[in-house]
Amino acid sequence: MSRLNSTFARLRSEGRQGLVSYVVAGDPSPSGTVDLLHQLVASGADVLEVGVPFSDPMAEGAVIQKGHERALANGMSLQGVLEIVAGFRQADQHTPIIMMGYANPIERFGYEAFATAGAEAGVDGLITVDLPPEEVDAIDAALKAVAMDNIFLISPTTPASRIQTIVERARGFIYCVAVKGVTGSGQLDAAEVARNVALIRSKTTLPVAVGFGIKDADSARAVATVADAVVVGSALIDAMVSVGKQQPAASDGQLHAAAAALLKSIREGMDSSPSYDRK
Question: β-strands 149-154, 47-51: how paired?
Answer without folding.
Answer: unpaired
